[in-house]
UniProtKB/TrEMBL annotation:
Coiled-coil ranges per UniProt: none
PROSITE patterns listed in its UniProt record: HTH_GNTR (PS50949)
Organism: Arthrobacter globiformis (strain ATCC 8010 / DSM 20124 / JCM 1332 / NBRC 12137 / NCIMB 8907 / NRRL B-2979 / 168)
Protein name as it appears in the record: Putative GntR family transcriptional regulator
SUPFAM superfamilies the record matches: GntR ligand-binding domain-like, Winged helix' DNA-binding domain
Pfam family name, one: GntR
Residue ranges of the region described as Disordered: 1-23
Entry superkingdom: Bacteria
Keyword set, alphabetical order: DNA-binding, Transcription, Transcription regulation
MF terms in GO: DNA binding; DNA-binding transcription factor activity
Length: 238
């Protein structure tokens, strides 16, 4: 993580030279938060896992105060929680969080699909599907899950909005926390991959309304499936 180290303020610099210390510290904290968010998105951090401050300050090359500022940002996004006298833990979202999460996904993703995008952006959606196909063929669960994340991120990127892209990064990180509730195997993501293909085909054909309608139904089924696991455990498979 040299990127984080080089962003720290040079302690030997003349007073007032370069970026103000507080501004630089906040910029580094934002990069730390982005790195931890990326690890969540890739499934490397699991719900309820304790985040070691000494370990992370060493591996990321930042001060404890900077790390805590990053934790505060992730806490505001409901990705981590600080428990008094115990430390900071990866969030373990519940059913109410799941409902709210899908409200956001339906609002953002479906709108992006229905508005379409440039040929380049639509091609990126198709590329995510191709990555998913290759991962499924090789039985690579982690690559398949990552391709699924990229598919949904690429749909929102069609809107060409930095604010929506930032929001979607939070959504993708939280998505991985919800899916940890599922006993995930290749078949789990493969059934979504088939629907991803149909949505990508509709986008490529210029049928943006149809793509949005398919995505809306897709998200409703996904929510119902995960909610049944939260409420009834692994025994019920709709």
């Amino acid at each position: 993580m040299e990127l984080l180290k080089t962003a720290e303020v040079d302690p030997g610099a003349e007073p007032g030279a370069g970026v103000p210390e507080k501004t630089a510290s906040t910029a580094v904290a934002a990069k730390v938060a982005a790195e931890l968010r990326r690890q969540l998105t890739k499934g490397r951090l699991k719900p309820g896992e304790r985040l070691s401050e000494p370990g992370l300050t060493k591996s990321l090359g930042v001060s404890r105060n900077t790390l805590r500022e990053a934790f505060a940002e992730l806490s505001s996004e409901r990705l981590v929680v600080r428990l008094p006298s115990r430390g900071v833990f990866v969030a373990s979202p519940g059913p109410a969080d799941l409902r709210d999460f899908y409200v956001v996904r339906r609002t953002v993703e479906v709108s992006a699909a229905r508005n379409g995008g440039t040929a380049e952006r639509i091609a990126a959606v198709g590329q995510a599907v191709e990555e998913g196909r290759a991962a499924a063929a090789s039985g690579d669960l982690n690559a398949l899950a990552t391709a699924n994340q990229r598919f949904h991120g690429a749909i929102v990127e069609m809107a060409e909005s930095d604010r929506l892209n930032s929001l979607m990064q939070q959504v993708l990180a939280e998505m991985r926390l919800f899916f940890h509730k599922e006993t995930v195997d290749v078949a789990f993501y493969t059934r979504y991959l088939q629907e991803n293909e149909l949505i990508a085909e509709a986008l490529s054909a210029g049928d943006f309304r149809g793509a949005g309608d398919m995505l809306l139904e897709y998200l409703r089924r996904s929510e119902d499936h995960l909610m049944s696991i939260y409420l009834y455990g692994e025994g019920r498979r709709d």
